[in-house]
Specification:
17% strand, globular, binds glutamic acid, GGT_bact, glutathione hydrolase activity, EC 2.3.2.2
């Protein structure tokens, strides 16, 4: 991602009219990065933080009209489908955590492999795993989308406004058009595969093959028609009938890499309610998404492992990076071995998050020296033994939405089409399809043993998405956090939680802190930030350090005694706004 996209001033200019509704707080405390691109936003009643100003504004309007956090989430998601199409939409999947004031519920709208999928799906004719983009581009990587059914399920349970009302903001933008943002334009410029799809080319690019410029008013009548049908008939309009037929045809007609999704696969799609994974971190209760995401467990593990250290006294810097990176190594070693779809794999959730187990893992670490490559542990209460799993890279195809409504109910939702622009397939119905199936391990076995996250028909690929909700010592809602970033989501969210809970940083400063961590490889520091200056000290503890781009998109809303404070990652175009 190019630094230029971090132009949050532009993002703020786009949203200036709606910021009138919320107050911008006094200048945020000096960020340790020295990069104060945005200020925290405060609001008395409610707040939405999302990756695009138009999407956040749609959510704010729904909240102002008396909608619930879930109503606002539906509106934000559908607008994101238009204005941030590279990241999420109805052709993808999502995880949603909902706090209703007394109970936390999580819904799994993860994409699912077609029934016909087999473990060798991403193996080439040479018996080796396919190159990543050979697998991604085309129908082979497309999972049955979960987002439409997820939105409908959540709204039926927790919505207050009519279904058509929460769809209306996106419908209006699809019909009247919206302006192409600098980030979308920039990503279209870098994109190598999208133009091979004729519908996507016509929608996003000019005749000469350059992306439609920033500020172009883009209309999407096909998506408007789709939204109308969904408004009339509910998500059934997506999972059967002409939209479903269009998805199946789009997946199946790719000339070199067709998929095998059927109408039956779509008809059978189900949202799963899961028990959220929760654990204590100091006085706070931190809750996240259960498998098939690895995000919730890995973050609880990291926090549990560093809990014995006085991170509050350390402040952001080499020492804190050492401990969090070491905790990341241990968490990612377990993640690789144990995590997969719980319908197919016995994930020892209780053992992996058991405080005694985490203490025993923490005991492996020392202040002076990195442990290097960590091995998976032996969590208690474990029924089955596994496995292996390769790691993934950094993607752009995800977005996070944090919302708190006037009743103090909250949504933390991370939503994805996996890679930037997904499978690079645009349906005639006006939306892009995901490539989520490449979140499965390509190799079905390693050293003769099956891989937990191998492809299987009807299975959900392992995720790293980590929508998170934090409660304070009194059990009251305290923070709503999450981020895109592929497997980097785990260190991004862990960093933000430590910044909020240990360093007591303002949410905007917390999200903008340099990113860092380890996924059980090198210790990674965010290039172009003050973290570069920490490198030598961290290397002195035996870490192999890599400076890399760490393009998070963290959205954080914190509930305080005097109202809400929100921060949206300065690395992207998002804003936090409220009433
Ligand atoms: N597909 C990834 C996952 O579910 C997220 C990709 C991203 O964050 O860009 O973990």
């Amino acid at each position: 991602m190019k630094r230029g996209f971090r132009s949050s001033l532009l993002a703020l200019a786009l949203v200036a009219p709606c910021l009138a509704q919320a107050q911008t707080a006094a200048p945020a405390p000096e960020a340790p990065t020295g990069r104060i691109a945005k200020h925290s936003t405060t609001a008395n009643q409610d707040m939405v933080a999302a990756a695009n100003p138009l999407a956040a504004e749609a959510g704010r309007q729904i909240l102002a009209a008396g909608g619930s956090a879930v109503d606002a989430a539906v509106a934000v998601q559908l607008v994101l489908n238009l204005v941030e199409p590279q990241s999420s939409g109805i052709g993808g999947g999502a995880f949603l955590l909902y706090w209703d004031g007394t109970k936390l519920t999580s819904l799994d709208g993860r994409e699912t492999a077609p029934a016909a999928a087999t473990p060798d799906r991403f193996m080439g004719p040479d018996g080796k795993p396919m190159a990543f983009y050979d697998a991604v581009v085309g129908g082979r990587s497309v999972g049955v989308p979960g987002t439409p059914r997820l939105l409908e399920t959540a709204r039926k349970r927790w919505g207050k406004l009519p279904w058509a009302d929460v769809i209306a903001p996106a419908l209006k933008l699809a019909e009247d058009g919206f302006t192409i943002s600098p980030r979308l334009n920039g990503l279209l410029g870098q994109e190598k595969f999208l133009q091979s799809d004729a519908l996507a080319r016509a929608y996003f690019y000019q005749e000469d093959g350059t992306p439609k410029p920033v500020g172009t008013v883009l209309k999407n009548p096909a998506f408007a028609k789709t939204l109308r049908e969904i408004a009339d008939k509910g998500a059934d309009a997506f999972y059967s009938g002409s939209i479903a037929a269009d998805i199946v045809a789009t997946v199946g007609r790719h000339p070199t890499n067709p998929g095998d999704m059927t109408l039956d696969d779509l008809k059978r799609y189900k949202v799963e309610e899961r028990e959220p994974v929760c654990g204590m971190y100091r006085v706070y209760r931190v809750c996240g998404m259960a498998p098939p995401s690895s995000g919730g467990i890995a973050i609880l593990q990291m926090l549990g492992i560093v809990e014995g250290q006085d991170l509050g006294a350390m402040k952001p810097g080499p020492e804190a990076v050492h401990w969090l990176a070491e905790a990341g190594r241990l968490a990612f070693a377990d993640r690789a071995l144990f995590l997969g779809d719980p319908a197919f794999v016995d994930v020892p959730v209780r053992g992996l998050t058991d405080p005694g187990y985490l203490k025993s893992r923490a005991a492996l670490l020392g202040a002076g020296r990195s442990i290097g490559k960590a091995k998976a542990g032996e969590p208690p209460f474990q029924k089955t033994e596994f496995f292996f799993a390769p790691s993934e890279g950094i993607e752009f195809g995800t977005s996070h939405i944090s919302i708190v409504d006037r009743e103090g109910h909250a949504v933390s939702m991370t939503t994805t089409i996996e890679d930037g622009f997904g499978a690079r397939l645009m349906t005639r119905s006006g939306f892009l399809l995901n490539n989520e199936l490449t979140d499965f391990s390509f190799a079905p076995t390693e050293e003769g043993r099956p891989v937990a996250n191998r492809v299987e028909g009807g299975k959900r690929p392992r995720s790293s998405m980590a929508p998170t909700i934090v409660f304070d010592a009194a059990g009251k809602l305290y923070a709503v956090v999450g981020s895109p970033g592929g497997s980097q989501i785990i260190p991004y969210v862990a960093k933000t939680l430590v910044a909020l809970l240990d360093w007591k940083l303002d949410p905007q400063v917390a999200v903008d802190l340099p990113n860092f961590g380890s996924r059980n490889g090198p210790t990674e520091l965010e290039a172009g930030t003050e973290a570069e200056g920490w490198k030598l000290e961290i290397e002195a503890k035996g870490h192999e350090v890599k400076l890399i781009d760490m393009n998070s998109g963290i959205q954080a809303v914190v509930v305080g005694a005097d109202g809400l404070t929100g921060g949206a990652d300065s690395r992207r175009e998002g804003v936090a706004i409220g009433n």
